Protein: Tissue factor
Amino acid sequence: MESNRQMKFRMLELLLVLFFMKECASEIYPKAQNVTWFSINFKSMLTWSPKPTNYSYTVEFSKLGQDRERTPHCIRTMDTECDLTLELKNLQDYYTADILSEPMRGVSSDLVEFPHVSSKKFSPYHDTDIGGPEFNIEVSSDKRKTTLHVTDVPTALFDVDKNRLNIRDVFGDKLQYKVIYRKAKSTGKVETEYSVGVIAGAILIIILAITAIIIVIVMCCRRRRRAENTEKEGLPLNGV
Structure:
C-alpha cells in the first residue's frame, strides 16, 4: 500500500515539474503570434511575429494528415517569415504549419518539447491571390477594328525544366478574363451582354407590334366585307 502511495506522489511531482518546465519554457522561448499565410501568384509565404531576441524559430509543415517536414532555410532562423513556395508541390492540397520557438543556433537545451503554435490550413491553388495582367490595345489603320492583347500573369512556379509557369499553365481552361470598357468621355460602362430586363422589354414591344398589325388587318377585312354586302343589297332584283 505504501509503495502505491509513494508511486502516486512521485508521479504528481513529475507532472508538477513538467508543468513548471513548460511554463518556464514559454517565458524563455515565447510562442509565435499572428501566424498568417500570404500568397500572390503562387508565391506562398508564412509570416508571424514577434522578432526574436535570444531565441529562434523553426518551421514544420505537412499536408493534412501526413508527417511533418522541415525546409533547411527555416530551421532555427531569426526571421519572421518562411518561403514555402517550392515545398508545397501539390497545389490543390491543403497544408498546415507549426512554428516552434527554440534556442538559437549553437545553444543547447534540456527541453524535449518546445513551445509551438499552429497555422490555419492553406491551399496554394485555392488561396493564392492573382495580380492584374498586362495588356495593350491595337487599333487598325482604318479605325474599324480594335484588338485587345492580354499577357498571362507569370507565377513563382517552375516546371521540371526550370521554365517559369504562368497562370494559364496552372489553371488551363478554367482561366477566364472579363473585359469591361467604356466610350471616351463617358461614365457608363459597356459590356457585351444585354440584361434580362432589356431583353424582356424588347420582346414585349415586338409582341405588341405584331398584335397591333393583326388587329389592323382584321378591321380592314371586316370593313371590306361590309362594303361588299352593302353594294349587293343595293342592286336590282333579276326577273324570274
Notes: The helical segments are 2-28, 124-127, 167-171, 196-234.
